[in-house]
Amino acid sequence: NTDSNSNIQDQVTKQAIEEAAGLIRKGGVVAFPTETVYGLGADARNTTAVEAVFAAKGRPSDNPLIVHIADRSQLTELIADVPSVALTLMDAYWPGPLTIVLPLLPNVLSSRVTAGLDTVGVRMPDHPIALALIAEANCPVAAPSANRSGRPSPTLASHVVEDLDGRIDGVLDGGPAGVGLESTVIRVFPNGDVQVLRPGGITIEQLSSVTGAKVISVGGALIEAQSAVSPDHHNDMGIHQSYADMDSSEPPRSPGVKYAHYAPHGQLTIVRGSSPQAVRDRIISMLGEYTLDGNVTGLLAFDEHLSGYPANSANYIISLGSLATPAEAAYKLYAALRFCDEKGVTFMLAEACSEEGLGEAVMNRLIKAAGGRVLDLS
Ligand code: TXA
Ligand code: MG
């Protein structure tokens, strides 16, 4: 019957988690599901293990990893002083898609995790498998998204296999990840100011509603401006600046923002404008031109507009869900980009959505995936 089936399933899962935790304890690297995307986990205290994470992803070594914990007691081993605003946010949103950058105690983690910074991004994921794995491994788990560097983050175990097969020690398959986009990364300053370094699963509205604190959003534009910094100026990003010297009026110092991200193989452009008809007409005509040029074409559009596109206007027309529910677009975006790659799509256009709520994170990732190519009609 179903009951004993689910018991067997539970045992299989428990065994897999124990096996994966054993691998992490021995210095291995294992991919696991979280409520945002799949992560690639390693013991954050073990330099060899952390280096293996960077190597498997092909990740630049100056881009620090997020450290995952299963229990608040693990926090005291990492951070000396947690500002009260940070505690309030943890109470409200942990476990959950919120990463908080705080000053790190010396000599508790491999310095590779933080890329030499004196701060660390910490989060407690809201996923039973992730929490059980971290608890069983009994260590802080460093885990970036489990994709090859520059590829869309994995929302399924099969995406991890696609990118990292043969390069890691295992994958815990927990089905589809939840939110579909990565966590919100924030800094909390000693004075209680909150700065968003990367929009994500927890919205600006959610951050300010519980803290009453000043929340500074960096916004897609500023992130894009930073990603245009030339590689010669890496060290001007203030990566080695001390946390104590920072204040919230300075530009964000999340090293990851300067790298190209989430890129599909084909060329993606976002078409945006106040008139949906004008956007649609332009999209149809551009797709037509690029098809004549021999491209395999793709279109990412919202449900409200889908019926306006003739079926033959692109080789692949993919829904991002309803404009009214950006959570759908968040959930579908990375899989849609990977689908286009699989189909050999060379030219893609995407509609834009409003940057309210989770829409801000969706547009942030979409603009990154497009390498900043946004065609503004209005
Ligand atoms: O949802 C998520 O956050 C997923 C899952 C697996 O937890 N993880 C994830 O990790 O997206 P990753 O490595 O792909 O992105 C981490 C981001 C990067 O942009 C990095 O630069 C930033 O967090 N970051 C990490 N530590 C930081 C620090 N000490 N200061 C500033 N930014 C930091
Ligand atoms: Mg990532």
UniProtKB/TrEMBL annotation:
E.C. number: 2.7.7.87
SUPFAM superfamilies registered for this protein in UniProt: YrdC/RibB
Gene3D superfamilies xref list: DHBP synthase (3.90.870.10), Threonylcarbamoyl-AMP synthase, C-terminal domain (3.40.50.11030)
Binding site for ATP: 36, 59, 63, 145, 153, 198, 262
Predominant location category: cytoplasm
This protein's record includes keyword Magnesium: no
GO MF, one annotated term: ATP binding
Keyword set, alphabetical order: ATP-binding, Cytoplasm, Nucleotide-binding, Nucleotidyltransferase, Transferase, tRNA processing
PROSITE patterns: YRDC (PS51163)
GO biological process: regulation of translational fidelity; tRNA processing
Binding site for L-threonine: 68, 119, 123, 143, 183
Compartments reported by the entry: Cytoplasm
GO annotation, cellular component aspect: cytoplasm
InterPro entries: DHBP_synth_RibB-like_a/b_dom (IPR017945), Sua5-like_dom (IPR006070), Sua5/YwlC_C (IPR038385), Sua5_C (IPR005145), T(6)A37_SUA5 (IPR010923), TC-AMP_synthase_SUA5 (IPR050156)
Residues covered by the YrdC-like domain: 14-202
Known catalytic reactions: L-threonine + hydrogencarbonate + ATP = L-threonylcarbamoyladenylate + diphosphate + H2O
Database matches in NCBIfam families: L-threonylcarbamoyladenylate synthase
Record family assignment: Belongs to the SUA5 family.
Function, in words: Required for the formation of a threonylcarbamoyl group on adenosine at position 37 (t(6)A37) in tRNAs that read codons beginning with adenine.
Protein name as it appears in the record: Threonylcarbamoyl-AMP synthase
